[in-house]
Amino acid sequence: MTRDTDAPADDDVLPDGGDAVAEGADDVALDPWGSSTVADYRKLFEEFGIEEFDQLLPEVPKPHYLMRRGVIFGHRDYRPVAAAMRNDEPFAVLSGFMPTGDPHIGHKLVFDEIIWHQERGGDAYGLIADLEAHSARGLTWDEIDEHSRDYLLSLLALGFDPDEGELYRQSDNRELQDLAFELGIEANYSELQAIYGFDGETDVSHMQSVVTQMADILYPQLDEPKPTVIPVGPDQDPHMRLARDLATRMRFFKVTEAYASFEADDAERALLREAWDALDDLADGGETTVRCVHAAQYLAHGADTVDFEADRPTVEVPELDESARASVVTKLQSAGMEPFRPRTRFFDRQATDEAFEGLIDAVEGEKRVYEGHVDSFDLEVAAAEELARQVEVDHGGYGFIPPSSIYHRFMTGLTGGKMSSSVPASHISLLDDPEDGYDKVKAATTGGRETAEEQRELGGEADDCPVYELYAYLLANDDDDLATEVYEECVGGERLCGGCKEQAAELMREFLADHQEKREEAKTLLAELDIDLDTDRA
């Protein structure tokens, strides 16, 4: 669920003072296997519904520095995870690595995000996406074995606790593959074609690897439903949207607001809610029975036309267009004198007969039972959701909670452009000799001016500088003061590129030396784990 290419930063203001500008902001295309970059991260908010992370930052206990500095810039439904952390409730974190090359400093972002959530009490999962690497990238199993070992050693060296988490390979996890088979029943080729652009030339194994990734994302909930976060780059968002859809489709019951016996969609429910709020006031808060025809009157003609006194009021329907209002007025007319009142509905998606009967028994208080749904007049939606999930689990269902995701910015390559494992000079591998890491930083492109005089006069362009990114993303670690100092001294003209790169290069050399020493120590730990890194596959 991460990739081996990284792209430029954007033009949003970072909390540490950065104002990362990227050229060429144009249409956004998210391709989990391609080389797409994101020139303007703000378009992700508009086009794909990704939410800005800084808006929920106050809800996160002791946020990671990647969150504080805006490197983690977006999320999809992360609030349940943040709430679980605050309340010391179960939650999980999972991300995966496609072993196509050496792990590099871009991958370290995901390693750190997994470990941080684990340290805050989350069940942590790290997986090797070897089936995807073999089917989508064509790597041999020997290559996959070698790279898998390197990824896992770095994850362990950075602090992943295997006693409090789980590491696995897709190809060796039978539970995962069984779950993928079940999820595949809910997905079809047309859907994969629309999401990923698959066509008649796409091999079946590649399509199968997608369903396996969906199973990866939901795997932490096999034992029990719990909020789960998947840290990824934004190019992986198509996977997250599909996984959330599949999690919902696998549920036994759908819980919604309702106001009458008929079904309504989201837009219609919003109108029904509006009608109830108005009519409840008009009817003296329950002294008069509000009926569906009254709601039809209100939505068709307004509050002044509602007649509570008539025995069987009728509605003169205006010519309405094909809208939610026209649709819901028609439904309300058909319901006629049926009482119109709020209730919480349990809709039977694919429950067994036993589960549906179990739900009926579990709903306490006033209720109405229909052929395909149960209406409760006492339960709030949130409580009903938990009840439906518990009944489902008790009757052999999964009860999946739609998984959450957080999105980090891609790192700019040291030579400019994107960071890629296939371009050695553009990235620093976590396996690089410390001296080579030092040299790569010293040779890196910067955001400095052409001369020292211009730099002192105009200030450097830290927002376009791969070296500054190294400080913000890695080298400053948890020291926000250092990251801010480097930025402010650069843009203020006090810091020149030569000295800045020298400091960064020395810090990189120290980091790599320390990391590789810890990798050596982790070899014993890895050998003791129940994970096969010498596959006998051809």
UniProtKB/TrEMBL annotation:
EC number(s) from the headed UniProt entry: 6.1.1.2
UniProt-listed Pfam families: tRNA-synt_1b
Lineage top rank: taxon: Archaea
GO MF term (any one): tryptophan-tRNA ligase activity
Motif 'KMSKS' region, residue range(s) on this chain: 418-422
Reaction equations catalysed: tRNA(Trp) + L-tryptophan + ATP = L-tryptophyl-tRNA(Trp) + AMP + diphosphate + H(+)
Cell compartments where the protein resides: Cytoplasm
Gene Ontology biological-process entries: tryptophanyl-tRNA aminoacylation
Coiled coil: 501-532
InterPro entries: aa-tRNA-synth_Ic, Rossmann-like_a/b/a_fold, Trp-tRNA-ligase, Tryptophan-tRNA-ligase_arc
Cell cycle found in the keyword field: no
Keywords: Aminoacyl-tRNA synthetase, ATP-binding, Coiled coil, Cytoplasm, Ligase, Nucleotide-binding, Protein biosynthesis
Cellular component GO terms, alphabetical: cytoplasm
Residue interval(s) of motif 'HIGH' region: 99-107
Family: Belongs to the class-I aminoacyl-tRNA synthetase family.
Protein task: Catalyzes the attachment of tryptophan to tRNA(Trp).
HAMAP family: Trp_tRNA_synth_A
Name the UniProt record assigns to this protein: Tryptophan--tRNA ligase
Organism annotation: Haloarchaeobius iranensis
Record lineage: Archaea, Methanobacteriati, Methanobacteriota, Stenosarchaea group, Halobacteria
